[in-house]
Amino acid sequence: MQLVLEKRAERSNTIALVSPLIAIGLTIATMSVLFAILGKNPIVALGVYFIDPLADSYSLQEIAVKATPLVMIAIGLSFCYLANAWNIGAEGQFLIGAVAGSWLAVKTHGTDAGLWVLPAMLLLGAIGGALYALIPAICKVRFGASEILTSLMLVYVADLLLDYLVRGPWRDPKGFNFPTTAEFDPVATVPILIEGGRLHLGAVITLLVVVAGAVLLGKTIMGFEIRVVGAAPRAARFGGFNSNRLILLTFAISGALAGMAGIIEVAGPIGHLQPGISPGYGFTAIIVAFLGRLNPAGILIAGLFLALTFIGGEQAQIAMKIPLDVTKVFQGILLFYVLACDSLILYRFRLVSSSPKVSRGVA
Amino acid sequence: MLFGPKSGAAPLLQTVGLTKRYGAFLANDCIDIEIWPRQIHALLGENGAGKSTLVKAIYGLIQPSEGEMRWQGEKMVLSGPSDARARGIGMVFQHFSLFDNLTVAENVALGLDGQQSFKDISARLEEVSNVYGLPLDPRRDVWQLSVGERQRIEIVRALMQDPKFLILDEPTAVLTPQEADQLFIVLERLKAEGRAILYISHKLEEVKRLCDIATILRGGKKVSACNPRAETAASLARMMVGTEIREVKAAAGRQTTVPRLVVNDLSLEPDDPHGVHLKHISLELKGGEILGIAGVAGNGQDELFAALSGERLAQDPGTVVIDGTAAGHLSITQRRRLGAAFVPEERLGHGTAPRMKLSENALLTGHAASGMVHRGFIKLAAMLSTVDRATKAFDVRKAKRDPEAASLSGGNLQKFIVGREILRNPAVLVVSQPTWGVDAGAATVIRQALLDLAARGAAVLVTSQDLDELAEITDRIAVMFHGRLSAPLPTAQATREQLGLLMGGSALEEKEAPHAVSA
């Protein structure tokens, strides 16, 4: 007997909807085994991960704060992935956006600049991220360089640039030699929504991005172009849509959203520029985009779910001494299962008896 | 049997009543064929006649639905190509399966069954290529090689298995005449060594020159087995395209007006190695006129379609003129705005995005000029109205108002695509294989629509391999062969024999280069 993958006659829409849930189920099962190996009670550990963070207002706000950059980046990435452009470097675009916006905060620091500073910072962040994302896009279009590699490699360039700036020219003179800029002025800070809480205006901007993303994809000719270039490239060319233009466009959009998420994170919850501003948001957003089926509403839900794993991971570290790296393992396993389960949309498993006729080798 | 060298002995390979069914479609219908050693056996037929299906069954790529195959007189069931190779059946495909970034020797090693050391393979490769006069440097990377050299790798790879029976699928399709001549010397030698060869082709002169026996397929059936040397190219052509069908007649007279589509000396290099080089193509098509382009697939029809539609741009704007405007440099969208419409051969993936709804597929070609887009926003109502109008006018049958394109049957999807374009009232319609794989009812609807469109003053260019179809609807017919377009013949005067000869390239070549086998 052999287990074979067999192509379905038609794609299964049921599986397309259920596949993320199967993936989550398989991930939880795998994690339970992992917890057991670590010597922790899986039931208790899963409770700390997934139930406890939902129980108090502080954690709920914290989930929204974490979900904000994840969702914003993932919306942009979903445009790329729908158009078959593989932007893996959102993490770098996030960092460059943070750097570009912080430049204005550093330059206006201590002056009496007005309320225009924050909007200008957000704009700079978006422009910085977009320009940075265009580097791999142009290399792809002009030279045929793999955008997967170039966009990923540029993450490390961005990381080191930020490191240099906060240790060198932008370091806070009164900062006791810590590698950080001065605390941003109030006009350069994203306002808090709930007094004494952590939820900030960025969450609202993200919701607007989700709505705008849904409108763009579903209601505009540009969204149609993005979808058709990815779904049927030859038909797209027949329709008069230029795939190179779309690569540039989707990279620019996703870079802008990642950059804006970066400056919102720095000007919001963090309050200054420093190394390590992202616990891998740009990479986790890839999981969010796929878990959300590259659909804006799905991405919102997936972003909240992934944020839950971040918060749950922190609580598990405090309460049960489970290493934070386990959270990253968790996210990696989740992406693995999401992509694996997607093959069930077009294929199904079947048991076949091995053929007795095969004389030597397999064709 | 007429052609058996020794009576009493079993042929090397024999198919008995071989039938292959795809759903209700009979790709091969009860085919009997005998392959004897020391013979080059031609398999002739138009595209879609069932040649590929037959050799796929013989090479173990597909299982026949009915009938059996006998190898040296014994029943043979193949579990796959490696099983076929183990018995001594080799095949050289029309499209090569080579890794560009690997060397010749590495490619050969990857394609061989069994375990041999790389050193042995390289040595044997050099030996085989020397013995047969197929020079190959085992250390060169494949991407550096010409198409002819790449084919040599495939042939040497097949020969290294020491096959008793070698199948070649249109081997000269990609070769220059000189390369083809070299290949024929190799094939003659293989024959002299006692091997059998099945040679798939539609080039009649080539078959007459090389082959000892020809089996002719038409519509999945074997129509004849003959000695090609005793036939003329014309009689072979007649057997390929069929004689029982009606003689060519002109469509009802229409008023022709000004030229609406003009092609001036269009030459285009192919952009992929299997493409066809378009050479000096000129044509003029008036409003109210339907011009047919006949020819065996792969002679440049796809390339011509791309050049006319703007999927490929020409250097010189004047090479394509749409309704008086030089358009060679314009994109497909700009050409649509000039009033041109296009229907490609492939319905799914080219003419439509298979997983998108019909309304979205209406938008695919309608976004340029049909009021479906307003300030960047798409108007679903206008898209759905196109779907509804096409459904009504062309009797498109579907399960719901706006299903995915892939869920429609071939005929209904084709009616939708043709309808989508005709509803835009184009000045010029370029349509490729309008009724390919479409049921008879839908085919009639589509042909009538093309006639009606021309009657309203549009210029219609139809590429088809179905001579009956061209006879029914066109005013003039031109033939494509090797990237060249013959001068159009008035449909009323063209005979099937003339067209068949043009399709086989013989008439064209006699004018250009006497005695050449292929141009």
Automatic annotation (TrEMBL), chain A:
Topological category with respect to the lipid bilayer: Multi-pass membrane protein
Transmembrane segments: 21-51, 63-82, 116-135, 147-166, 199-217, 246-268, 280-308, 329-349
Localisation per UniProt entry: Cell membrane
Annotated keywords: Cell membrane, Membrane, Transmembrane, Transmembrane helix
GO cellular component term, pick one: plasma membrane
GO terms assigned for molecular function: transmembrane transporter activity
Major location (coarse): membrane
Annotated protein name in UniProt: Sugar ABC transporter permease
Natural source organism: Bradyrhizobium lablabi
Taxonomic placement: Bacteria, Pseudomonadati, Pseudomonadota, Alphaproteobacteria, Hyphomicrobiales
TrEMBL record, chain B:
SMART domains reported for this sequence: AAA
Gene Ontology MF terms in the entry: ATP binding; ATP hydrolysis activity
InterPro entries xrefs: AAA+_ATPase (IPR003593), ABC_carbohydrate_import_ATPase (IPR050107), ABC_transporter-like_ATP-bd (IPR003439), ABC_transporter-like_CS (IPR017871), P-loop_NTPase (IPR027417)
Keyword list, A-Z: ATP-binding, Nucleotide-binding
One Pfam family per UniProt: ABC_tran
ABC transporter domain boundaries: 13-244, 261-507
Main function: Involved in beta-(1-->2)glucan export. Transmembrane domains (TMD) form a pore in the inner membrane and the ATP-binding domain (NBD) is responsible for energy generation.
Family to which this protein belongs: Belongs to the ABC transporter superfamily.
Protein name in UniProt: ABC transporter
Species this chain originates from: Bradyrhizobium lablabi
